[in-house]
Amino acid sequence: MRTLIRNGRVVDPSQGLDAFADLLLEDGEVARIGERLAAPEHTEVVDAAGLIVTPGFIDIHVHLREPGQEYKETVRTGTMAAAAGGFTAVCCMANTVPVNDHRSITEHIRGEAERHGFARVHPIGAVSKGLEGKQLAEIGEMAAAGAVAISDDGRPVMDAELMRRALLYARHYGLPNGLGLPNGLPVVQHAEDLSLSGGGVMHEGETSARLGLPGIPGSAEDVMVARDLILLEDCGGRYHVAHISTARSLDLVKLAKRRGLPATCEVTPHHLLLTDDEVARTGFSTACKMKPPLRSAGDKAAMLAGLADGSVDAIASDHAPHHTDEKDESFHNAPFGIVGLETTVPLCLDRLVRPGLISLSRLVELLACGPARVMNLPTGTLRAGAPADVTLLSLEDRYTVEPGGFRSKGRSTPFGGWELQGRAVGTFLEGRRVVFEERRSS
Questions:
Q1: Terminal C-alpha separation, the chain
Q2: What is the pLDDT of residues 221-262, one digit of tens each?
Q3: pTM of the model as a whole
Q4: Is 290 helix (H, G, I), strand (E, B) or coil?
Q5: In this model, does residue 285 exceed pLDDT 50?
Q6: Residue tagged active-site, from 101, 152, 318, 350
Q7: Residue 28's domain spans which residues?
Q8: Are 4 and 22 in contact (CB under 8 A)?
Q9: 327, 346: one domain
Q10: 265 forms bridges with which residues in the sheet?
Q11: What one-character-per-residue DSSP string does 122-191 give?
């Protein structure tokens, strides 16, 4: 099977490449990049004139809900949403029902993804059995079945000794990929000290006080990140902060990196583009309720600065779908979480690249090369011999966020109605163009 993608602007930061070129995909791998490549016999030719050709985008923070909560999302609908949004791979969190804390659940998730074929799925196994924070899960068994990291995301690892042992055990699993981080599975932390966050429902600050809603202080995140980085320095391993949201937490990660610690972090589009004032502006819309909560303007500015200075390793959606009836509650009672697989790329192209906050190459680094590096994946590059996962972008296409048309089962987004310029217009998975089924009715 051969595909020749012609006349596109190829942007691949892993090779320092930004040039008009052709890309030949053969037998599921990147064969070569060059100018005016000849099409071998029996080759599908795709004209990418006016488009950007990049390594396939990877979302390293997604909740697919299957098994156990298929009314919210399934592997099929989640990977359809991923491909529609420009992602060729996702890493899915372990808070399924039952929890992905042993080999059979990991294998089930991977099997479902392969059966549907819209995007790769890399399961993230649980740190603790049942996400209860008491006993380590079967890390080795999950790694052998294909887990690429461990995390209790949705809940923090509150017990310091459990986190220490997780860092130690995870060092023995996973293979190096030559991208600069040590061997072992990353331990992904939902950084939240529950004794500080308590029953908070939004960021603690002037807005929460004015609205009369219990707040979650930024220090709830900061204290946990500081503790974990001390443990990382003492016992080694690899540590990744999920959905980082405060300026002080990011400063702590920067300091750890300067000291040579293998610490990484991701930030979400909503923490880059919105603040806690959005809760008031929207009249308590539950589409503005997520963990960590929308933070202050100063925190938002720090996240944007982290993109520009290289201290943030990846942009991730934290796609967390809920049934519409669940989000159609009071702000206090509604669950935390919004969807993001289908909005992340257009939001980043329109609100980050188009105004010049970051370059297009830096965005590709944050959505492809950086995520691959964090999760030790062989994708995220268009080097010869790499898996032929490709994303095509248009910088000119206009896109209106219409939740009713999402391929995801989730509908809750604070970006509904936003008019954006730039979007993903196609993906290739192992050299095969991904073609969608008819949209599910809303």
A1: 36
A2: 999 999 999 999 999 999 999 999 999 999 999 999 999 999
A3: 0.96
A4: coil
A5: yes
A6: 318
A7: 2-51+391-433
A8: yes
A9: yes
A10: 241
A11: EEEE-SBGGG-SSSB--HHHHHHHT--EEE-TTS----HHHHHHHHHHHTTSS---SSSS-SS--EEE--
Last residue of a domain, one of 339, 356, 382: 382
362 and 405 in a common domain: no
The tokens describing 18, both together, are 């930004």
> Is the C-alpha dihedral spanning 94, 414, 316, 161 positive or negative?
negative
Same domain, 282 and 409: no
Cα–Cα separations (whole angstroms), residue 92 to 49, 109, 288, 354, 408: 34, 9, 22, 30, 14
Query: What are the φ/ψ torsions at residue 217 (nearest 5 degrees)?
Result: -70, 150
Residues 194, 277 share a domain: yes
* Assigned token pair, 115: 């059966």
The answer to whether position 222 is within a domain reads: yes
Residue 153 bears catalytic tag: no
Q: In 287-418, where does DSSP find H-type helix?
A: 297-309, 324-327, 344-348, 360-364, 370-375
CA distance 146 to 120: 12
pLDDT tens-digit map of 400-416: 999 999 999 999 999 99
Cα 246 to the chain's mean position, in Å?
18
Handedness of CA 14, 19, 24, 28 (dihedral sign): positive
Residue listed under structure tokens 């391993």 = 237
Instruction: Say whether 281 sits in a helix, a strand or coil.
Output: helix
Tokens representing residue 173 in the block: 């699993």
The residues, ordered by sequence, that sit 6+ positions from 283 with a Cβ below 8 Å of its Cβ are none
Instruction: For residues 195-215, give the mean pLDDT.
Output: 97
Within this chain, do residues 9 and 76 fall inside the same structural domain, yes or no?
Answer: no
Which uninterrupted H or E stretch holds 419? strand 419-429
The amino acid at 152: D
310 and 261 in a common domain: yes
Lookup: tokens for 238: 């690899």
Q: Which two tokens stand for residue 170?
A: 């995870």
Calpha distance 82→393 (Å, rounded): 14
CA nearest neighbour of 55 among 376, 383, 432, 313? 383
Whether residue 332 sits in one domain with residue 314: yes
Answer yes or no: are the C-beta atoms of 406 and 79 closer than 8 Å: no
Neighbours of 425 (CB within 10 A): 16
On whether both 156 and 289 belong to a single domain, the answer is: yes
Angstrom distance (rounded) from CA 351 to CA 357: 8
